[in-house]
């Protein structure tokens, strides 16, 4: 029997917490239970505002949000155990990514900020909790992101296979598992974040279900060209990004006021598809197969465009390789917690640009 861990994460969409209860063997895993824990609407609104308007977010705001988000992460873990009928004493540790409010890897003094007080999680569940995974990588010169490629390498790498793992969350990132070469990985640009922000503003909806709104519009070639001219897209890895760059202010600077709202949504969907496809062609040219995970896998229009842009590559979800695409990131942070307790490195310098491999995460005991 293997060791049981919990992984918790909320992405830049801020719709709630993904929680996964996982049993790890030496080279395999089994998901025992999963749970999606939505944020209370008022808290989600405050989190989005804090991310979008950092200059008006006070220290008191951050402190309160850290506490309230920690309570939600705690409750997600407890609910997960209740659903599974498993006692907290059976769980070795929780890996909590937390909720990112700010990620500035290229600032003069680089920093990243994830909230969701891990001491509340540890004391509230009685389970050792590992958190703050990104800071150690940044302290040795890395981007602090993406962190999941080392897990993708462990689970998805196959000898003789040239695979790329594509995670489409708020931001899209790839892990390049080319045969007999070091694993690479980087953020390609916006995943769902701009589409989510635009539909939220224009239609007061959380996301574009199945990409139906985007599919009903027409791609504006001029707008797409202006958006793709951002230097981020042509920059070589290592690189990571977030809402700090790809937000509605960035979009509006590209002159969208005279374009129909549905055509803007169609163009934003195309932006994600084209930027991913360009990144694969440029930095993962030997890719024969792409496995997709994250919320974007459910956007039928986005998946259609990815296939259209990369017709020679076989594209499917990570389910084809044995892991449900909705839970890859939560499982990854459970695995990273295991790495931390084993005192093993959690980063890949070939991905983040760090000077060396380091252990990731701070350990919070239940007390």
Write the layout of secondary structure elements.
Blueprint: E1 3-10, E2 16-24, E3 29-38, H1 41-52, H2 59-84, E4 91-104, E5 111-115, H3 118-125, E6 129-131, H4 135-139, H5 149-156, E7 163-168, E8 171-177, E9 184-190, H6 193-203, H7 212-216, H8 221-228, H9 231-234, H10 248-252, H11 261-283, E10 289-293, H12 300-309, E11 314-317, H13 328-341, H14 349-352, E12 362-364
Parallel strand pairs: 1-4, 4-6, 7-10, 10-11
Antiparallel strand pairs: 1-2, 2-3, 4-5, 6-12, 7-8, 8-9
What does this structure look like?
This protein is α/β, with parallel strands linked by helices and 367 residues long. It folds into two domains: 3-144 and 327-364, ATPase, nucleotide binding domain (Nucleotidyltransferase, domain 5), CATH 3.30.420.40; 149-321, 2-Layer Sandwich (Nucleotidyltransferase, domain 5), CATH 3.30.420. It is 39% helix and 22% strand. The protein contains 14 helices and twelve strands. It has helices at residues 41-52, 59-84, 118-125, 135-139, 149-156, 193-203, 212-216, 221-228, 231-234, 248-252, 261-283, 300-309, 328-341, 349-352; strands at 3-10, 16-24, 29-38, 91-104, 111-115, 129-131, 163-168, 171-177, 184-190, 289-293, 314-317, 362-364. Strands 1, 2, 3, 4, 5, 6 and 12 form a seven-stranded mixed β-sheet that branches. A five-stranded mixed β-sheet has the order 9-8-7-10-11, sandwiched between helices. A hairpin with a 2-residue loop joins β7 and β8. It starts with a strand and ends with a strand.
